[in-house]
From TrEMBL:
Span of domain HTH luxR-type: 174-239
Source organism superkingdom: Bacteria
Designated name of the protein: Response regulator protein VraR
UniProt-listed GO biological process terms: regulation of DNA-templated transcription
Pfam families: GerE (PF00196)
Entry keyword annotation includes Transcription regulation: yes
Species in which this protein is naturally found: Ruegeria atlantica
Signal sequence, start to end: none
Amino acid sequence: MGIPFQDSAIPNNSNPEDFSINFVGKELFYSDQTIHGVQTEFGVVTRRIETIDMLPAPSRLDVGAGKVVVVDQMMLDDLLNRPQAYMEIAGSGSLVFAFRKEEAARLAFEKWNRSKFGDIGYLPMNVAPDVWQSILRLLLHEELYLPCFLADCVAHAPTLSNSVPVSTPRPSDLHPTYSKLTRREKQVLKLVSKGQSNKIIASNLGITEHTVKLHMHNVAGKIGVSNRTAAAQFFFEVAPDEARELPID
């Protein structure tokens, strides 16, 4: 049996040396065993550094490189005080907040200026190993994971009079449950509603079947259904305009 995830973590026609996972924090939180295990499982360069200042600034050669910068919750103050520095280090890759307590993740989510610096991903450190690896796998594909308890914050966030203007939402986005889904989860749900198999969906979106299954697992949990038929019915009810856009094979 080959190394799990190694073949599917890195997109096709990409050089593994162009990819790296960088854990920012103390050895107490990212042990040598964890670092070695990630590098073995994913087949990418994996390192642990105590501060982002130990990472070189990205250059033009880094454009398109799959760099993942994972920041431990103990670095939250530094992350919020120097957001621009962290975004510059992540470059075109993913910036991720690793947390062990939901309170820390909520604080990071509330304080991070998404309108100015863009979205960051979240990596729970107290979940099952296979779930943890799957989330890392998403991050290597630049798919930012947002836990359900933070998605609820988005759905119920009040509208502020001095907030940055946004475009008029589509009717489907007004549905609070549908709004919890990420962009990729909506894409997967849309294709599931078309009757496509996981294999075809994976091919259409350029991801793996395992990733499709993870997305559908998240979708089912967020919208409260137990099977694909119920998920498709939900989609047709809350997003009829998008459903009509589905091409007929």
